[in-house]
Specification:
eight-stranded parallel sheet; 9 helices; alpha/beta; TIM Barrel; 262 residues
Amino acid sequence: MIFESHAHYDDEQFDEDRDALLQALPQHNVGAIVNVGSSLESSEASIALAEAYDYVYASVGVHPDEVGDLTQESMAALRTLAMHPKVVAIGEIGLDYYRKEEEGTDYKDVQKQWFQQQLELAALLRKPVIVHSREAAEDTLHILEYFYAKHPEIYNPGVIHCFSYSPEIAAAYTNMGFYIGVGGVVTFRNAKKLVETVKYTPIDRILVETDSPYLAPEPNRGKRNDSSNIRYVIEKIAQIKEMTPEDVERQTEINARNMYGI
């Protein structure tokens, strides 16, 4: 079965056909889905979806673009959500430095603060993290290296979602125990760096994802994405690594189940 490691089916783009789409995904060989929270509200919605479908699981967390309004009361609420039995990770959390200059000079410090607090929550609850990192390679790596050096008992730190950096940075993460999340971008013609990363990253360190409804792969680039498109990601990884799609599907399912503890 295909394990969809990162999707957002609570997004409003699915409001008109969410139930029909989710019910149909097993027919496309999608056997498990992690619906990923990006705010308190979407984390609650992710849990609701996980309660409604046996093969859907949830993560809870606040995306770096959403941390500006976080408070300690918000963190207490997030901790309560994270204790739900179908919550398998904390995320997506991290750093995003893309187009943030208009928010002033302290936005990086604010993002770092709440990233670190959500990492602490994950360590407390022994859950892996789903890390979002965009144009923040050095700071993300530095924070995670420092944090997990403080917590050597955590052997399963999580996944770097929608990986966009170099093979060398990917190796630094996999050496720490992280998985590398690979989605539709790997099928794009201009994705040379990601193709190199996939080539050199061991297959037992790769998760497949769609980030639905975003980042649909070729041949559906630009359209609303959903987990039925994940087969194109698997086929591209198989081509890069000179494997069969069936072996990629099998190994990435094992990887996801190991990481999420499912």
